[in-house]
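Task card 7
Instruction: Convert sequence to structure tokens.
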Amino acid sequence: QVHLVESGGGLVQAGDSLRLSCAASGRTFSNNVLGWFRQAPGKEREFVAAITWSGGDTDYADSVKGRFTISRDNAKNTLYLQMNSLEPGDTAVYFCAASDVRSWYQRQLQRFYNYWGQGTQVTVSS
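Output:
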């Protein structure tokens, strides 16, 4: 059975950094597109970042571009999200996701992803 488990969330102040991790078990995801999404209270879940199976291509939501960096370690079957210069607007539950479809152009769509973690809370105080 496939499991994605996020960690690294917490309560920080504006301007601080956090690194989220997403450990996968049950199968390897070295050939899959992996992504991060987030859901703030009272809002829809939204795309944050995605990375190709090789790590050669990445994509970011405009709101996090230049502040967040997505990366992956296929040997460890782990996905990361380095978040710098955090803002109160980044407060949300962050989810990692993996897709079985070897395609890049749907990377921002939630329906593209087959597997989801349970989420980790990130709270940024002003």
